[in-house]
Write a structure and sequence with these properties.
CATH class of the largest domain: Alpha Beta
CATH architecture of the largest domain: 3-Layer(aba) Sandwich
Strand order of the largest sheet: 2-1-3-4-5
CATH topology of the largest domain: Rossmann fold
Oligomer: single chain
Helix content: 40-55%
């Protein structure tokens, strides 16, 4: 089925496979942002769902030399003050949790910046003169992660808060790598030569459980979201070494034929003890859980490995959606839920 290009075109009505293929272009987008240099003690990034993904990636690469917190909720931490750089991010610009947090941050006198594609956040930024990174149009927020990452790094750079001075240059340079990396996963590549299609066939009808070490965990979380929203399949994620302190035992008693697909995202850049934990866990859990699907990341740097893994997960989950007989793009029930909250 996954080699039937006509059927793929019919089911993938919004061309999400094309969006996934062209993600590399997002890394070169130029944002017109005006941001002063700042002296702050900490950074808080408020965003929900797909809008928080770029911030999560940034904690792994390029990282921070100041306390950095991702806020996924209505209320801000008590430490927010005029010495806080507060970034409110929402693709729609109307996410109620983020708007609530922004109002509280304003009351505390925090230094504000906005990342949005429209809506109330853009109106607020224009009215109050906040630095604004205006996101280009995307089919869904989860398909704008690399736009969002670029916007975040530009804001941080202009504010004098970017730890790695070469990060923006490195991000732009990674575009060519990503453009080439996705070629083996395209729909024109047959299943017997396409690892993304092969994994989709393994996970169809199962709940995916994705594991990674700390460096790749942002990518694992993106896989989880993509399984939820693209494939409409429940999925979970956890990271090593925390896994070995609790969840490890959860696999030990039930029959091995569990309705799960275990996916290990492995990187040689992880701490050596984390790499060994993957190997020992796989050996000790053999016969107690489904054998893991091991995805060994590719790339010459942590940034390239993160981009590669995120993009690979997009293709895997889109193909899984097509196997499920559904259009990957819409998230109708989420939209219905949002409207129901106001009734």
């Amino acid at each position: 089925m996954l080699d039937d290009l006509k059927l793929i075109h019919e089911r993938d009505a919004q061309d999400t496979l094309g969006i996934a293929e062209r993600q590399w272009q997002q890394l070169g987008h130029e944002f017109e942002i005006f941001q002063d240099q700042l002296e702050v003690n900490n950074i808080v990034y408020a965003g929900m769902g797909g809008s928080s993904l770029a911030a999560l990636v940034s904690t792994s690469w390029p990282g921070y030399d100041k306390p950095f917190e991702i806020l996924r909720g209505y209320d801000i931490p008590g430490y927010v003050s005029e010495k806080t750089y507060f970034i409110a991010a929402s693709y729609s610009g109307n996410t109620e949790e983020t708007l609530s947090a922004l109002e509280q941050a304003e009351a505390k006198g925090a230094q504000i910046a906005i990342i949005a594609g429209g809506g109330k956040l853009v109106e607020i930024a224009n009215q109050k003169g906040y630095p604004l990174a205006l996101l280009p149009k995307a089919e869904q927020p989860r398909y704008a992660v690399f736009y969002n990452l670029k916007a975040l790094l530009v804001l941080l750079s202009q504010a004098g808060l970017l730890t790695d001075a070469s990060a923006l240059e490195d991000l732009a340079g990674a575009a060519d790598f990503l453009k080439q990396a996705v070629q083996p996963w395209l729909p024109t590549v047959p299943t017997d030569k396409n690892p993304a299609k092969q994994i989709a066939l393994e996970v169809i009808g199962k709940s995916a459980v994705i594991y990674a070490g700390p460096k790749l965990w942002p990518a694992a979380y993106k896989w989880k979201i993509s399984f939820n929203e693209n494939a409409k399949q429940i999925a979970w994620t956890n990271q090593f070494p925390e896994f070995n302190h609790n969840e490890f035992m959860g696999w030990t008693q039930q029959p091995v034929q569990k309705p799960y697909a275990v996916i290990d995202l492995r990187s040689n850049l992880e701490h050596p003890r984390v790499q060994k934990r993957f190997e020992v866990s796989e050996r000790l859990l053999s016969g107690k859980r489904p054998a893991p699907i091991v995805v060994q990341t590719e790339g010459a740097s942590l940034l390239e490995e993160l981009l590669w893994t995120i993009a690979f997960g997009d293709f895997v989950t889109i193909y899984t959606a097509l196997l499920n007989g559904i259009n990957p793009a819409p998230v109708d029930l989420i939209e219905k839920f949002k409207k129901s909250l106001d009734n």
